[in-house]
Amino acid sequence: MDEFDTIDDHFARHAKLLMEDPSARFGALRNCSFFKPVPDEWLQRISEMAQIRTFHADISITSQDDDMKAFYVILYGAAEAFRNGKLVGTIETGDCFGEGIFFADGSITASATVIADDKIIVAQFSKIAIAALQADPHAMVSLDKALLLALFKKLKGANQKIERLMLV
Description:
It is built from five helices and eight strands. The protein is of the alpha+beta class and 168 residues long. The chain has one domain: Jelly Rolls (Sandwich), CATH 2.60.120. The relative contact order is 0.17.
């Protein structure tokens, strides 16, 4: 077995553990920067709603202008976001995408195509899971803070890009 096979094996075992072991899934979400503001009691419920998914390099997770079907938090790895075929950002471990689904009254389309850089593991939350969370105002207090912090981080990054472009 060479080094790459060992890495692949480790990745597969880790993903399987997160899929099958609720305490491992909770721990992965607890260590994720997105979920830092969420108290343990709510994170426990949220972790039970998470579907763990894996994607390999160059696989599209979302496609620009397609209906957004879920919200994602990257637990391991990174992905790139493309708008109109141009790279607009990188989504790292702990970051989220698809958060617009929390704010839409009906259907919403993806603002970017998100493609896995290499092997990644995500926590995926379906529209049904999101609706269940939104029905509980206590759960949403914590999630709203996490979402606002994530959006603030993205806005700050966009402002920095604009600033760099203006210097050119």
